[in-house]
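We were asked to recover a plausible sequence for a given structure. The inputs and outputs are reproduced exactly as logged, with field labels preserved.

PROBLEM: sequence recovery
POSITIONS: 342
GIVEN STRUCTURE:
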């Protein structure tokens, strides 16, 4: 497999054909230095329909063919997260670089297996935590890191969907890693850890469904330096998806859509509030293009991981999510199986 040069297009494969795969493919089509050359699904009919929709030349009715396709520079894994370990692992074993949707895996053990495999094979691997690549989120982090609000004291963030979701829906299916925490709560947790790193202690409470997944979860994360983060996720009520970061000399408020904001407000003690707005040139707030651009930049630079979404940071978030699930009593089928050796 070639390593893309600056003047070359990066050739993408897409594994899975659901809604997030379609959104990502649509954004790739608009990038002049990206080319989607293949798509794979468990069924050939689905793969062919997806390929026709986006003008993709090759459609595979199985993951293995995509993993072995040496004409692909990087594979975007867009399956439900219960299949991330198997799908991303297959591609890494086939020598492909991988961008894997969030949450990265079901649990820390699976995440560690993928990271170890990528490092052993010398392949690029990144979680598709698009929030970390968002220009306005990067601006917010830079302000915090530069001391604009002093020492961070508290972080608050929420993400809830109104539902209701029936028991058969993937968000309530334990076999698919259902529940609010992994699908939605990964965002508030990742936001808090973007600013504060891994917490020293985790407490949590949840309301569980009859199937045993969390319908809503609240967690309090704490750090040795005294900082606290309050995070909430729900599939029983739509929330503002807001966030606030309070420091010793001010705060930053993200009024809505904190993981893909169109603006935030900086309040500094003794000064007038300052509003920071998204640049229209960066595209719609729902665009996934920034994570694609970061992957392509890293591949051209010969990097095996992104400094914006480092693998150790992904493992850290998975460790926190595991801790929350332990506190609330959510366990998925098959988690007691023997670990996969790499």
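RECOVERED SEQUENCE:
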């Amino acid at each position: 497999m070639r390593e893309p040069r600056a003047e070359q297009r990066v050739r993408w494969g897409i594994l899975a054909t659901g809604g997030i795969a379609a959104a990502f493919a649509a954004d790739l089509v608009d990038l002049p230095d990206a080319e989607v050359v293949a798509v794979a699904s468990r069924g050939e009919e689905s793969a062919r329909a997806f390929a026709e929709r986006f003008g993709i030349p090759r459609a595979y009715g199985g993951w293995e063919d995509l993993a072995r396709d040496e004409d692909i520079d990087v594979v975007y894994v867009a399956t439900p997260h219960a299949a991330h370990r198997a799908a991303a692992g297959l591609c890494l074993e086939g020598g492909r670089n991988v961008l894997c949707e969030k949450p990265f895996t079901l649990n820390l053990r699976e995440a560690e297996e993928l990271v170890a495999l990528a490092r052993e094979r010398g392949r690029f691997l990144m979680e598709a935590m698009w929030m970390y690549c968002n220009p306005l989120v990067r601006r917010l982090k830079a302000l915090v890191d530069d001391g604009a609000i002093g020492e961070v004291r508290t972080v608050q963030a929420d993400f809830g969907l109104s539902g209701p979701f029936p028991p058969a829906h993937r968000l309530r299916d334990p076999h698919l890693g259902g529940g609010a925490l992994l699908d939605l709560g990964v965002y508030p947790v990742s936001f808090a850890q973007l600013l504060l790193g891994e917490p020293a202690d985790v407490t949590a409470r949840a309301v569980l469904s009859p199937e045993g997944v969390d319908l809503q979860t609240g967690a309090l994360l704490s750090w040795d330096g005294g900082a606290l983060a309050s995070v909430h996720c729900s599939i029983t009520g739509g929330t503002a998806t807001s966030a606030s970061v309070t420091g010793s000399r001010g705060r930053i408020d993200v009024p809505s859509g904190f993981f893909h904001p169109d603006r935030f407000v900086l309040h500094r003690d003794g000064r007038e509030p300052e509003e920071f707005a998204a640049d229209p040139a960066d595209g719609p707030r729902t665009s996934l293009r920034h994570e694609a651009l970061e992957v392509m930049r890293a591949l051209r630079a010969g990097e095996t991981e992104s400094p914006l979404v480092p693998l150790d940071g992904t493992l850290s978030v998975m460790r926190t999510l595991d801790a929350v699930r332990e506190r609330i009593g959510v366990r998925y089928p098959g988690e007691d199986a023997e670990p996969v050796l790499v």
